Amino acid sequence: MIVLVGYVSIEGQTRKIAEAIAARIEKDGHRAVLFNVMSMAEYALERPDAAILCAPIHAGRYPAPFVDFVRREKDWLSSVPNAFVSVSLFIRSDIEAEQEEARHFPDALKTETGWAPDHVHHAAGAFSFSEYDFFKRWMMKRMAEREGAPSDTGEDVEFTDWSEIDRFVSVFLWSADR
Ligand SMILES: Cc1cc2nc3c(=O)[nH]c(=O)nc-3n(C[C@H](O)[C@H](O)[C@H](O)COP(=O)(O)O)c2cc1C
Q1: 47 phi and psi, to 5 degrees?
Q2: Of 6, 56, 57, 98, which has fewest CB within 10 angstroms of its CB?
Q3: Interval between CA 172 and ligand 1 midpoint (Å)
Q4: Per-domain residue ranges for the chain?
Q5: 9 close to ligand 1 (CB < 6 Angstrom)
Q6: Are 85 and 54 in contact (CB under 8 A)?
Q7: One digit per residue, pLDDT tens: the chain, 178 residues?
Q8: How far does the centroid of ligand 1 lie from the alpha carbon of residue 67, in Å?
Q9: What spacing in Å lies between the alpha carbon of 30 and ligand 1's midpoint?
Q10: Atom number, ligand 1, closest to the C-alpha of residue 15
Q11: Whole-angstrom distance, CA of residue 151 vs CA of residue 48
């Protein structure tokens, strides 16, 4: 199978997740086409047999170029086995209302684009302090403090559960290959 792994990443964590997904696909003997949606390149000459898209939440929304891409490509996306990986920090929050909000982020994407993914996986992202400008650093320190995450070391803090990503990809490939 040829599997498109399309992603958008502002600070790099979703790119890492997409790369891990692509590596897992190749390990299973399939071909992964890793595609940065923001590169505006052609994503494949051949039509992929399946697709996994990954996007992070920034200020309550997925990045606009990702939403535009999904809106444009939803017909073929829906015609192959497909999945969506939503990357956020609220999904690992101790605050129940934030977790609940994170669980519903993909619903807003569906409303905006008309794409109803076959599978949705929620992945916790990272505090990428080394990538932030002054304003983002201030904002994200507040978020870390609110959520009881380490915030004063200046170090990046990654919450992504890589074994969960692995499990999700393996279930997806199993169901897509049938
Ligand atoms: C400016 C900014 C705003 C964010 N807003 C949210 C948010 O509203 N909800 C949330 O769950 N995570 C939010 N996050 C956390 C990101 O989803 C998380 O850091 C993710 O790992 C970013 O992925 P990326 O490195 O691929 O851009 C925000 C992060 C930044 C930098």
Answers
A1: -75, 125
A2: 98
A3: 25
A4: 2-125+160-176
A5: yes
A6: yes
A7: 999 999 999 999 999 999 999 999 999 999 999 999 998 666 555 689 999 999 999 999 999 999 999 999 999 999 999 999 999 999 999 899 999 999 999 999 999 999 999 999 999 999 999 999 999 999 999 998 888 887 766 789 999 999 999 999 999 999 998 7
A8: 16
A9: 31
A10: 26
A11: 41
Query: How many Å apart are CA 121 and CA 124, to the nearest integer?
Result: 10
Tokens at 131, concatenated: 């990538």
66: Cβ below 6 Å to ligand 1?
Answer: no
Q: Which atom of ligand 1 is nearest the CA belonging to 132?
A: 31
Question: Probe ligand 1: pick from 14, 87, 89, max atoms within 8 Å of CB?
Answer: 89
Question: Measured in whole angstroms, how far is the alpha carbon of residue 151 from the centre of its chain?
Answer: 23
As a CATH number, domain 2-125+160-176 is 3.40.50.360
